[in-house]
Amino acid sequence: MRLYVLVIALFTSLLQADLISPLPTDTKYDQKKALLGKKLFNDPRLSADDTISCASCHLLEDGGDDNIKFSFGINAQEGVINSPTVFNSRYNLSQFWDGRAQDLQAQASQPIHNPIEMGSNMDEVLSKLKKDPEYSVEFKSIYKDAITKENITDAIAEFEKALVTPNSKFDQYLRGDKTALNKEEKEGYKLFKENGCIACHNGINIGGNLYQKVGILKTYVDKKNTLGRYNVTKKEKDKYFFKVPTLRNIELTAPYLHDGSQKNLFDIVNFMTLYQIGMVPDKEEVKKIVSFLKTLTGETPKIMSINEK
Amino acid sequence: MRLYVLVIALFTSLLQADLISPLPTDTKYDQKKALLGKKLFNDPRLSADDTISCASCHLLEDGGDDNIKFSFGINAQEGVINSPTVFNSRYNLSQFWDGRAQDLQAQASQPIHNPIEMGSNMDEVLSKLKKDPEYSVEFKSIYKDAITKENITDAIAEFEKALVTPNSKFDQYLRGDKTALNKEEKEGYKLFKENGCIACHNGINIGGNLYQKVGILKTYVDKKNTLGRYNVTKKEKDKYFFKVPTLRNIELTAPYLHDGSQKNLFDIVNFMTLYQIGMVPDKEEVKKIVSFLKTLTGETPKIMSINEK
Q1: Is the pLDDT of residue B4 over 90?
Q2: Contact B212 A10 (CB under 8 A)
Q3: Which of A188, A195, A19 is nearest to B276 (CA)?
Q4: Peptide bond before B245: cis, by omega within 30 degrees of 0?
Q5: At which of A132, A161, A190 does a domain end?
Q6: Does B74 score more than 50 pLDDT?
Q7: What pLDDT sits at residue A1?
Q8: How does strand A241-243 pair with strand A211-213?
C-alpha cells in the first residue's frame, strides 16, 4: 500500500528530528512577587486547620509532588487523584489532570477550597493572612490594593513560574553536547521516538500540551472510575481523557499515572506500551527507555535557594 | 525489519488519536487590565514619531498579522522577518520566531526598542503616556505604582492573553461534532497526520510548542540568511531553527514562512512537503490539506467587541 511506503519513509526521516526543545536556563519572573509567593506556597494557614500548605503535596525538594498514590488533606483525608508536579507547570496548556484551570493563578485557589484538601476558602485565608503584619507590609509594597484574594493567588502563580528545572542531561544533549547521554540513554531516546511515545510527549515540556485518552488501544478504567476531561466538558467523548503529563523530572515523581497505580518507571513504561501504543513491551527496550527517562531530571530552580528578605 | 513492522502498526494506531486539543471557549483574563492593554496596543505613541502601534503590524481584524512579506516600521523602514500572528500567542512556548522573549510581557517592549520598527524606548514611551491624564487615572486604578514601564507591558500582555480564537470548525470536530468537517476536510486532516505535519504542529496551538529546523530534509537558506534560534543561543546546531508557528487562523495570515516567501496555502504546503518531510507533493493531497487548514479559523476574541470605558 502506498500509504505504508510513505509512512516508513516519513517516520524514518522524522526520527532524525528532535521534537522536544530544551528549557530556558534563565527563567524570567518578578522576583519580589515570586518570593512572596514562595512564602505563601509554604504557609499552612492556607488550610482550614493550619496544617496543610501547597508544599505539603508539592514537595519542592523531591520532584514537586509527594511520593504517594494519593495525597492527604486536612483531617488525614485521602485525595482521589495523584498529585502532579508543580515544576515546569508554566509550560502546560492548563492545570490539573483534567485541565479545569486555565492558568497557574486559577489553579492556586482550588486546593484551598477543596474540602478534602485544604478545606478552607479564600475569604478565610485572606482574613487569616491579613492579621500577619509581615504579609501586610509585603503585599503593600507590591500591590496597589495590598493583600487581596487575587493578589494571594497571583503571587503563588509567580513563584510557580520560577519553578523551572533547566539543564537536564537530555537538555544538554539537545543543546548539542552529544556526550551528555550515554549509549543506552541514546538508544532509549531512539526507542522513545520509534515507539511513538514522542507523539504525545513532545514540545518544551515533553508533554503538557494536549489531552489524550488513557487506554487508546486497550481500555483502562481505574478503580475510582476517574473520568478526567469529561468532568470539565461533560462530553461523552472526553471520558478517560487526561492532560498528557510532562516527563521532566519523571524519575522523581513516582508513583505514576493519574491514579498512582504504577509504582516505578518500569511499570509505567510497560503500561504505556500496552495501553497507549498497543504493543507487547520488550524487556530490553523498556530498560533503555527508562534509562532515557532518567536523563530528564533538571536542576533545582534558583529561587529555592533564595531566602526571603 | 522489525522496526518497520512496529512503525507501521504504531503509526496506523496513532492515526486514530487526535494529537491536537481544542482551545477553551471561556478564556480567562483580567478584564480591566486587558482593556487598558487594548488601548495601549492600538496607541501609535508607542513609536518614536507617533505613527506605528502594535496593531499596525498585528491587525486584529485580519488574522493578527499584516498581509505583507515584511512589515514597515517608522520612516517606512522595512522589517526583516514576517510578522507572526498575535492570536493565541499565550499558548506559544516563547515569543518571536527565534523565541527570544520568554513571555508576552517580555515580548511587548522589544518592537518599541527596535530601530526599524517603533524606534523608541520605554523611557520615551513612559514620558509620553504620562502626559495623558486618561492613562494616569486608568493605571492608578489598577496598579499600585500607577503608570510604569513594567505596567505598560503587563497590560499589553494581558490584552494579548485575551486574544484567543475558539470554536474553529476543527475545534468543533475535536469536541465531538463529526459533521463540522466535510469529506474533503476530513481527508485533509487524515493526510495532515499521515504525512507527519502533526509531528511538529500538534498540541493546543497546533504548533508553537518547539523549535524546528526549516529544511530538515532539503536545505533552505532564505535571501537574508536568517539564522533563527542561533541568534539566541549562538550554537551552530541552532542555525535555521525557528519556533514552529501555530496553524490556527492560518488562512488569514498569508504570506507564509518566517521570510514571507510563500504566497498562499498551496505554496506553503508544497514547500513543507518538500523541505520538511522530504516528499514530492501530490496536487490532490495538497488541495485536501489546504481545505483542512481552512477549518482552523476561529472566532473573533470577545474582547475586541468590548469598548473601553
Answers
A1: no
A2: no
A3: A19
A4: no
A5: A161
A6: yes
A7: 42
A8: antiparallel
Do residues A300 and A165 touch, judged by C-beta distance below 8 A?
yes
- B122-130 and B133-142 are packed helices; what angle lies between their axes, rounded to 10 degrees? 100
Q: Which of B14, B146, B278 comes nearest A13 by C-beta?
A: B278
Residue A152 shares a structural domain with residue A182: no
Residue span of the structural domain in which A258 resides: 16-24+166-296
- Consecutive H or E run containing B141: helix B133-142
B9 contacts chain A (CB < 8 A):
yes
Write the pLDDT tens digit of every residue in A178-213.
999 999 999 999 999 989 899 999 999 999 999 999
Assign residue A95 the CATH number of its domain. Answer: 1.10.760.10
Alpha helix locations (H) across B143-203? Answer: 149-161, 169-174, 183-194
**Per the CB < 8 Å rule, is B8 touching A9?**
no
Q: What is the pTM of this model?
A: 0.90
In a domain, B170, yes or no: yes
Query: Among the three residues A117, A132, A161, which one is the final residue of a domain in this structure?
Result: A161
Would an 8 Å CB–CB cutoff place B175 in contact with chain A? yes
DSSP character string of B282-304: PHHHHHHHHHHHGGG--PPPGGG
Residues 6+ apart with CB under 8 A from A94: A100, A101, A102, A103, A243, B24
Q: What is the pLDDT of residues B259-299, one digit of tens each?
A: 999 999 999 999 999 999 888 999 999 999 999 999 999 99
How far apart, in whole angstroms, are the C-alpha atoms of residue A269 and residue A116? 31
Q: Would an 8 Å CB–CB cutoff place A194 in contact with chain B?
A: yes
Element (H, E) at A243: strand A241-243
End-to-end CA distance of chain B: 67
| Euclidean distance between CA atoms B71 and B76, whole angstroms | 9
User: Is A4 inside a domain boundary?
Assistant: no
pLDDT at A309 over 60: no
> In this structure, is residue A9 part of a structural domain?
no
Identify the residue among B2, B7, B33 best suited for mutation to test binding to A, counting A beta carbons within 10 A and taking the highest. B7
Are B57 and B20 within one domain?
no
Residues 256-275 in B contacting A (C-alpha not used; CB under 8 Å) = none
Clarify whether residues A50 and A91 are in a common domain: yes
Same domain, residue pair A100 and A128: yes
Phi (first) and psi of residue B155, to 5 degrees? -70, -40
**CA-closest candidate to residue A252, choices A58, A79, A1, A112:** A58
